[in-house]
């Protein structure tokens, strides 16, 4: 039979998963204007003031002339080649007439689990192009198998308070050096800079291992979801965006509801997450009619409960989130259509070609709310409904029996 274009794309694309690199944005560099309370770098007439009880590491790129400088009781100045400090000799400096006290800003509040303080980068540190592919909120901060980058020639201080005792990572790059083994990381922690750069009740552990499962690995940040969402809402005005749709969706591992579509996939051992993402990107997302659609796809865990109340366990699934940047009456219609195309492709090829055993789609747009489910998911719900009815009938029968026996009034 003739091969359809989605199957052709999936066979041409490589299946190997790629590492994810996340770079810390803030720094504590001396030359960064936002690190000073006056919004500018100190100049010759100024008195520099570091709070004596604030622990800090500060990278200095160039030479500076200052009137005076008060240092902290516990901290470090990391000097680049040629950098240093000299006392102001009283000569006129055309760019520095104020001669005031300039204080270094507080860096204690910068938290590891703040999504806005991280950005996705390439292995070389270049910013990844933004737009079509996005991450749900829990995955915007470093995940279990991610590589973390702190920019070369920068200092930083980050709060690693966590609900977990240990935060696992594949590797950490600092000052241009990649630490990708437990031994290398343990050696760095014994040095003088680590306690000045990292503080809080958590600890970081470098494993050097990549995700071993071709179906993907869950991020692992669920225990700190409350920290992620609190930080995200504080950065956006303490509330989620106002949405146009009547019944917005709540994606798993995401802080706020969205308009658009979600698809949940149950998968077989043959499922390859990277290969399937490439299939969707090249076969659907790149089409001009979906130019306004953004997509997130990852493995997440869905909590299972007994009778809808008692926590029982969690089940891994592949979640696809589609959102539409269009505004007005057409909000999310392109996302809805792309979701329908994905469901049709799954129906045509199923578990043999794609490694997908069942699928369920939910759509929320500005004008409609609809729910569609794949055949496998629908059969499970039908079976669950039958068992629920049988349980209810048995319960009523038991009550009637006890009533007839006079043991229940």
TrEMBL record:
A Gene Ontology term for the protein's cellular component: endocytic vesicle
Signal peptide: 1-17
Transmembrane region(s): 381-403
Membrane topology of the entry: Single-pass type I membrane protein
One Gene Ontology term from the biological process aspect of the record: receptor-mediated endocytosis
Top-level taxonomic group: Eukaryota
Compartments reported by the entry: Cell membrane
Keywords noted in UniProt: Cell membrane, Membrane, Protein transport, Signal, Transmembrane, Transmembrane helix, Transport
Protein name: Protein amnionless
Gene that this polypeptide is encoded by: Amn
